[in-house]
Amino acid sequence: MVLELLQNLSEMQIVGDLTVLTLLIGGIIMAGGVIIAKIAKLLFHKYYAPSLPKDTAQNISKLIYFGILIISFLGFTSSQGIDLSGIMVAGGIFAVVIGFATQSVVSNLISGLFLIVEKPAKHGDTIELPDMGISGTLLDIGTFSSKVRRFDGTVTRIPNEKFFTSNIRSLTISTVRRADATVGISYESDIDHAILVIKNEILQTMPFVLQIPEPEFRIEELGDSSVNIHVFVWHPRDDWSQAQPILLTTIKRALDKSGIDIPFPQRVIWTGKD
Q1: Fold of 176-257
Q2: Alpha carbon distances (Å) from 141 to 177, 208, 230
Q3: 3-state class of 9 per DSSP?
C-alpha cells in the first residue's frame, strides 16, 4: 500500500517534471535541516558557548545554524532536479574575489577559532607577547581580534592572526615565578661572604621568597671594576609585581650592613709630559 501511494505521488505532476513526491522529499530534507540546525545550535550553547566570549559564541552559533541550512537547501534543490551549475560557477568566481578582498578578515576569524580550541591563555590571564613587546592581562579573545590591558592601563587590540602566530607566554599557568637581579662587588671583597650575607638577608626579610628551591647565585662576569653576581629567587606567582624591586632593595641593604662596596666604573687617564 505504501509503495502504491508513493507510485501515485510520483505520477502526480505539478509543473514540468516536478511531482508531488519530489516536492515532499524536498520538504522533508528542508524540515530535517531546520531541526538538525536547531539541535546543533542548542547543543553548542549548552556545552561550548559558556566557555567562550559572548560575541564569539554568538557568531559561531550563527555559522553552525546557517551552514546547516545552506547544506539542506542544496540538498533540496538537488532533489527537485534544479540545475545550479551556472549559479555555482558565478558564486565560485564571486567567492574568489571576495576571498582576496577579505583575506585578512578570514585569517583572523580562523585564527580566533584555533585560539578558542587550543586555549594558550584564557580571560584574566597575565601574558607576555615578546614578539610584539606587549604584556598585560588578557581581556578577551574575540571573533577577529583579542584585547590585552597593559600594565599602564591602556587596552591594545591585536588581530587574531598575529596573536595566534606570536610567542605567547602565560604568566598565570605556573604557580611560581622567578625574579633575578645582578649586583657588582669590588675585587677586594670576599665573594663567598658577599653571597652569604645577601642570602641571609633575603631569607630573613623577604618572607614570600621560597626556600625550596633556595636562592641561587652565579658569578656572571669579571667586569672592568667589579665582580658581577647574578641573584635568582623563586616566589609565588601573585607576588611577581613586587618581587623585583624588593629584591634589589634587599641586596643593597645586605651589602651596606656588611660594609661591602658596590663599585662604580672608574677610569684612570694618564697624561704625558711635553
Answers
A1: Alpha-Beta Plaits (3.30.70)
A2: 25, 33, 38
A3: helix
